[in-house]
Amino acid sequence: MADSRTVTTTQFAILDTARSQVLGEGVGLSEEQVLDVLRLPDEALEPLLELAHEVRMRWCGPEVEVEGIISLKTGGCPEDCHFCSQSGLFDSPVRSAWLDIPSLVEAAKQTAKTGATEFCIVAAVRGPNERLMAQVAAGIAAIKDAVDINIACSLGMLTPEQVEQLAAMGVHRYNHNLETARSHFPNVVTTHTWEERWETLQLVREAGMEVCCGGILGMGESLEQRAEFAAQLAELTPDEVPLNFLNPRPGTPFGDLEPLDARDALRAVAAFRLAMPRTVLRFAGGREITLGDLGARQGLLGGINAVIVGNYLTTLGRPAEADIDLLGELKMPIKALNDTI
Amino acid sequence: MFCDQCGKPAGARGEHARCVERRLLEPPRFCPDCARRMVVQVTPTGWTARCSRHGERTSA
Predict the structure, then answer these.
(1) ipTM exceeding 0.85?
(2) Which of A101, A118, A224, A240 would you call most buried, defined as having the most Cβ atoms within 10 angstroms of its Cβ?
């Protein structure tokens, strides 16, 4: 009896289809086609990653966008995102903290020193209140006075007025992850809906900011739901898609889930690239857990064209120098400030 | 002394297998002197952890 990963000519046919459709014409794979990719056997992983890399090089080029992130407001969030150690509803060891403006500026300077051109300010909130918006405005003004770097924000769900305010502050990109497939979202978050997140993303686009939207893989979703998620992101046409892999956090409802298998993670990287040939596809949190030290290289040669360097919001990452050195070794230049990929 | 990852007593030989593994990619969460949860701020290149009783530790 053949299992679902048995090699068949039909299964490999998706690689030929993708070569013609995505590499040749720049048309992303459909949900059904992404599912075929996710079901490819391990024997097909190497040619799959090579194809995803060719697609990235053809439609995006060799440049890599490098970003640093910082938590402006940590912990105490009223939402119940089951993967998140910053929810105030779980028994997590993460305590609430606010970052002061001088420390925020220093973090932006540290980020710029690594060669990064993006700096994302993040807050663990449902959506920003007046105090947070004021802190963000003061922080952005101070950073712009001190550092030449693009500023992105991730502050939860926004009102139309807040979107306008952030655009006026000079925020060039806004991150708001859909996190997972629409059909799986109620298993991940119950305090707000997938549709509410989608609405904020539409507001961001209408205001002229770049849309950054991705999610976390390995939260108990099926392969079908992973393909569904890729298709829903492709429909959104975000400028950037950050791909995270679940890093099970102590005290959260997902704290006992096993990290995603490395081969499944790499298959997903390639599949998301083939679904969105022109997007900035960023390696984000959890890659150290899921893929180990070799993950950065495999990802960058398998469809990834952006990385978060250094530490994350509440956890530590690889040293920024390790990723920057790797880019040099792979002859992948860091995207210059104000260039587009 | 307490484990800075789980806050439990460090044990006779300080053995906390999962905590040792976790420490590679985690800042300290609990004060090693009193096991209080610390206020931790992670930055792109480091971290600070503050105990209300025993003060601040940094990655530097």
Answers:
(1) yes
(2) A118
